[in-house]
Every structure is written in structure tokens, then in C-alpha cells.
Amino acid sequence: MSVLQVGRIESSLAGALKAKYQALQLPNDSTRSFLLAEHGPSVTAIVDSGPPGVDADLMNALPNLGAIVHVGAGYDTIDVDEARTLGIGVSNTPDVLNDTVADAAVGLMLATMRGLCAADRYVRAGLWPHGARYPLGRDLSGSRIGILGFGRVGSAIAGFGCAIAYHNRHQVPDAPYRYAASPIELAESVDVFVVATAGGAGTTSLVSRSVLEALGPDGYLINVARGSVVDQNVLVELLAGGRLAGAGLDVFAEEPDVPTELCGLDNVVLLPHVGGATVRGVRAMTELVLRNLDQFLTHGTLTTPVVQANGHRRNAITDNRCRTVPTVERANDAVG
Q1: Which CATH number fits domain 2-95+279-334: 2.60.120.560, 3.40.50.2000, 3.40.50.720, 3.40.1690.10?
Q2: What is the helix (H) or strand (E) element at residue 49, kind and residue range?
């Protein structure tokens, strides 16, 4: 039995996986096929942290794979449908980063609307003693904020205290905020449009040209969700043409690549996908990942399942026990 790491795993978690499970790292180069050929049959669990993700080919190359434990709440880099078909359990780490990501969203709003990062560059460049008065910013207090995706993170952002409206796939019962029936309707009615919805095929380019144009030249876009949710080419076009007031972006369509046009704009704040990257947040995520992994390898269940296993590979994993350290039955077997 072995654990396979996929993607870039934070160092403290990688150290824990190495110490406890002698975890292997999946290469993202020509040596990948050799590792899978040598170790693939022994892999019973994956710990995944984004690109390159876990697709159908990788799952089918691991005949005894029982669970994919994803680091993070969003799991759009996993082919969940294929996992369900194969009976492979999938878990994520919900809730532990809600306030952390909400803090980042508020920070991006403040930094973007007040021009704080550009002001920092202005001072560092020695322009303050010699230049004209620094351009005026916009107040976040009193602004109308629209939140696309009113789940755990979206509702945490709403606690900031501005005039809040939201759009969600379904209206949230008892939510004390105005509901907009569509992303366009939301964009038309707010000053700041915060993207906090899930990623994946269902939300690709949900923030389309029509939505961005509805936000208008005085509107700001903040994205702490996934780069795929926003039509990035249109966003760049409108920002460069002065048809949006600004943007605060923690995520991009093809990370870590960032459009060069954005890097030259002072009304844009760019972060390297660090919305959940705090000491407390990483510690909480690490603990939940290890809890999911330990529970699966010990009892065959997942602590925070997205997809429960259905036992399709029970016999293969059971047969593997005679050749490895004790392993487990499939995640769904314990829950029916």
C-alpha cells in the first residue's frame, strides 16, 4: 500500500505524508510513466493539490486506488464523474478556510479600490517628494457589493458590513440580503462584484462579457474563486480599455501564467493564489487532509466525502493485502 502525491503539496503536509506513509510524488515529466508502471498497483490513495490534477487516465493507471483526498475546498481538477464510475472515494477540505479566503477578498477590495499596491510602488520609486498628488481612491465603506456564489465563503464575505446583494444557483432561505436572479442583474446593481462560486465545467466563463459590461466603467471585479469562472480575455480587454474601474485577482485561467497586459495596470491587484495561505489556514487544511487519509486507510471511510466509494474495486484491494501492509475496504462500504 502506498500514497501518491499529485500536484504541489505544501511543505509541512508533504513532510507529514513522507514520514507517516513514505508517500511518492507523481512526476510531471517523462518519468511519470515509469513511476506508474513500477508503483501504480500499490497505490491505494492519492493526496491531490491541484494541477495537473487527477484525470481518468491516472485513475485507470492505478488499479487499487481507493480514495482521492484533495487539499482545498474546490476540487475541479479531479474528474469526479470518473471517480464515481470507478467507485473511488473523493474528499475535500470544506469550511476550514472560509474566513481566511473571505479576509483575502476584503483585502483585495480595499487594495484595489484604494489603489494601495500602486501607492506602495509610488513611494518605493521615490516619486512622492517630486510627483503630483496621488490619485484619489474609492471608499469600500458604503459601496454596494455583489457576491456571485453565496456558499460558505460568500456568506463569510457578506459579514463585512456593506450593502450586500448576491446571486446563487438557488435563493438562500432566510438570507438577509437582496437576491439577484442572474449574474447580469447582480452586476448591473453593484459597485463591486465578488466571485466566490465553485469552479468546474458548470461555471466556466459564468462571468461573461455581458456580465462584465453590465458592471460598467465604475465597477470593480474581485475574484477569489477560480480563474475559469471569468472570461479572462474579455476582462483584460475591458480593463485595458478603461471600461472597468479595476480588478483584484487571486486566481487566473492558466496558473501560474498571468496575462502580461494585467501586470502593467495600476488599477489591478494580482496575487499568486494565496487566498487561503495563512499559517492557521494551512495548519487546519493539513489536519483535515490527514484525518481523511487516516480514516480511509484505517476504516475505509472519508471524513468529508464529496463522493463515497461504492466498492467496485473491493476484491482488488483485498487481494493486495497479502502483498502489502494492512489496507482497507472501499469508503462507501461503511455507509451503505
Answers
A1: 3.40.50.720
A2: strand 43-49
Residue 316: count other Cβ atoms within 10 Å of its Cβ: 14
Contact 183/230 with Cβ under 8 angstroms?
A: no
Share of the chain above pLDDT 70, in %: 90
Would you say residue 319 has pLDDT above 70? no
Grid cell in block for residue 190: 453593484
**Where along the chain do its domains lie?**
2-95+279-334, 98-270
Q: Is there a contact between 41 and 320 (Cβ–Cβ < 8 Å)?
A: yes
Report which secondary-structure segment, H or E, holds 58. Answer: helix 56-60
Contact between residue 313 and residue 64 where contact means Cβ atoms under 8 Å apart: yes
Q: Is 327 exposed, middle or buried (0-12, 13-18, 19+ CB in 10 A)?
A: buried
Q: For residue 143, what is its C-alpha cell?
A: 459601496
Q: pLDDT tens digit string along 150-188?
A: 998 999 998 766 899 999 999 999 899 999 999 999 999
Active-site annotation, residues: 226, 255, 273
